[in-house]
């Protein structure tokens, strides 16, 4: 009995560890694209110009002004974030999927998977939001002559001192909205697409199926989550003015002001670098995660 109880617990620990490891590998590989996306999204609120700026120009400016290491500014809090965020959402999704699956011959519908994926993402994002805040702030710091923070610990200390402990969750609501949409697209679409590919014999449960499913999930997640991502980035990066006021009162106010002053297409700023990152990120993560699970004797996701 004790051995039977320890087996599921051991499997859960292995899944958590492998999800963290795979996420950190994927994050390190694609981080230069992520910082390019963040800077591009902040461009409209940090530079007084109507000149259109491409992702390539933003990346080139980072390298020219900050060196190659500038492409990895904020990597450490991003890695810390994935120690919590990715295991909670992926393992949580898998557990909920099994809990709601009453008959193995009747898999869950796509809407059911989408709700489970979104809920798992929300829980994970609430836990990981402080690390996400520090990552965004440190990425944005590269545009400043005098950076606000030197290290993740320094950022945490200053944010708590100036904005209070709950300041670590600034932007948590747009963050939650984005997490729901992203994970609804990523987890549900990957799961559903992989099942479709294998069931229709397009590919076996191997790297080809994982690659095709990751591409589809990355495109879906980017399309539906990019507006929330722009709002999240701007809400998290904003500071207090000299009058002690914030530029955006809430997510809705951020959307209205962004559309009013920059047009509706501004809500999809950074779409291509986001997709360019999510595609490789999804590929590296899912292929690594599925391979690691196979090595330790766990079933496919």
UniProtKB/TrEMBL annotation:
This is Mitochondrial uncoupling protein 3. Coiled coil: none annotated. Gene3D superfamilies: Mitochondrial carrier domain. The lineage of its organism: Eukaryota, Viridiplantae, Streptophyta, Embryophyta, Tracheophyta. GO terms for cellular component: mitochondrial inner membrane. Signal peptide: none annotated. It is found in: Mitochondrion inner membrane. Solcar repeats lie at residues 14-99, 112-196, 205-295. It is a multi-pass membrane protein. One of its GO terms (molecular function) is transmembrane transporter activity.
């Amino acid at each position: 009995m004790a051995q039977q109880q320890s087996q599921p617990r051991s499997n859960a620990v292995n899944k958590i560890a492998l999800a963290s490891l795979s996420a950190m590998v994927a994050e390190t590989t694609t981080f230069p694209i992520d910082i390019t996306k963040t800077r591009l999204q902040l461009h409209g609120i940090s530079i007084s110009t109507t000149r259109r700026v491409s992702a390539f120009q933003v990346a080139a400016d980072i390298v020219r002004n900050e060196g190659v290491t500038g492409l990895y500014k904020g990597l450490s809090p991003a890695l810390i974030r994935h120690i919590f965020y990715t295991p909670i959402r992926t393992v949580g999704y898998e557990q909920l999927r099994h809990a709601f699956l009453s008959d193995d011959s009747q898999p869950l519908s796509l809407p059911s998977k989408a709700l489970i994926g979104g809920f798992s993402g929300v829980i994970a994002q609430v836990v990981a939001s402080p690390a996400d805040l520090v990552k965004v702030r440190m990425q944005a710091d590269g545009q400043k002559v005098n950076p606000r923070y030197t290290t993740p610990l320094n950022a945490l200390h200053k944010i708590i001192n100036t904005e209070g402990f709950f300041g670590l969750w600034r932007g948590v609501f747009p963050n939650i909205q984005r997490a729901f949409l992203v994970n609804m697209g990523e987890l549900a679409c990957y799961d559903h697409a992989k099942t479709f590919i294998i069931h229709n014999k397009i590919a076996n449960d191997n790297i080809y199926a994982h690659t095709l499913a990751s591409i589809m999930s990355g495109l879906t997640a980017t399309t539906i989550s990019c507006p929330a991502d722009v709002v999240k980035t701007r809400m998290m990066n904003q500071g207090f003015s000299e009058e002690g006021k914030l530029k955006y009162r809430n997510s809705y106010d951020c959307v209205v002001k962004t559309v009013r002053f920059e047009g509706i297409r501004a809500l999809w700023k950074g779409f291509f670098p986001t997709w360019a990152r999510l595609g490789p990120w999804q590929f590296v993560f899912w292929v690594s995660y599925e391979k690691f699970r196979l090595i330790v004797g766990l079933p496919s996701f």
